[in-house]
Amino acid sequence: MGEADITTRRIEARVLHAGKAQGEVLVLSEPLSFWGGFDPVTGKILDKHHPEAGVSVTGKIVVMPASRGSAGTPAGVAESIRLNTGPGAIILYRRDVNIAVGAIVACELYGHCMPVLVVSDENYGRFISGQPAQIDADGAISLSE
């Protein structure tokens, strides 16, 4: 299969925090706690009960239903962005104020603006781990298939 055989699907999303990103999709099968279930220093999922335990989210376009946990989530998200170990973007199935606040804080304090988007139920299932993706500032997601 050559480059000419690659197709691109464009998905519109609701923007919780704007930004641009490009990277590999990582679909998490369950919500993730960024406060206690994630190590912002290494970018890896620490929660031993999470199906993707030990996986690094660094630079990935992370797709997950929502975050799990507490008001500590913004700190975990912002710290990982500051350390360049966080996701390149986060795409959610449900709105999540904690993740959005973490991205906003990191953008304001550190100048790194990670996109946080919400997609419809119809489009949520279109993401596949390992798939290349690009996110534009307007919230449009381009998926290579």
UniProtKB/TrEMBL annotation:
Keywords for this protein: Lyase
Molecular function in Gene Ontology: lyase activity
Residues annotated as signal peptide: none
Gene3D superfamilies named among the record's database cross-references: Phosphohistidine domain
TM segment ranges: none
PANTHER family named among the record's database cross-references: DUF521 DOMAIN PROTEIN (AFU_ORTHOLOGUE AFUA_6G00490)
Protein name: DUF126 domain-containing protein
Lineage: Bacteria, Pseudomonadati, Pseudomonadota, Alphaproteobacteria, Hyphomicrobiales
